[in-house]
Amino acid sequence: MKKVTSELKKTDITNPVSVFILWWMMIVVPLYVENRYFNILQAKGHAFDAGCIAGAILIAFSVLGNKYVTKLKPKASLTDAGIVIMACAAIISCFLCGSFKAAFWGEQGWCVGGFAFLMGAFLYMYLSKSFYMSQNFWLPVIAVNIFIFVVGIMHSAGTDVLGIHKNIDPSQFYQYISTIGNVNWFSGYLCLLIPMFACFYIGAKGIASQIIYILILALGELNMVLTGSDSLLLGLGVCAFFALPHMFRTKSSATRFSVLVVIYGLASMLVSLHPAFVEKSAMIDGLSAFFLKQPVYIGLMAIGIIGILVFNLMNESAAKKLCKVIIIAGEIALAAAVIYFVYKTAVSFGVRWGSYRGSIWKKAVEVFAGLGPVNKIFGVGPEMLGQYFKDMPVGFTRRVLAAHSEPLQILLSMGIAGLTGWILMWAGIIKRFFTGRLWRTPVMAFYLPLMAYLGQSTVNTPMATNFGMMIVMVSLFVYNSERIKIKDNLE
Question: pTM for the whole thing?
Answer without folding.
Answer: 0.94
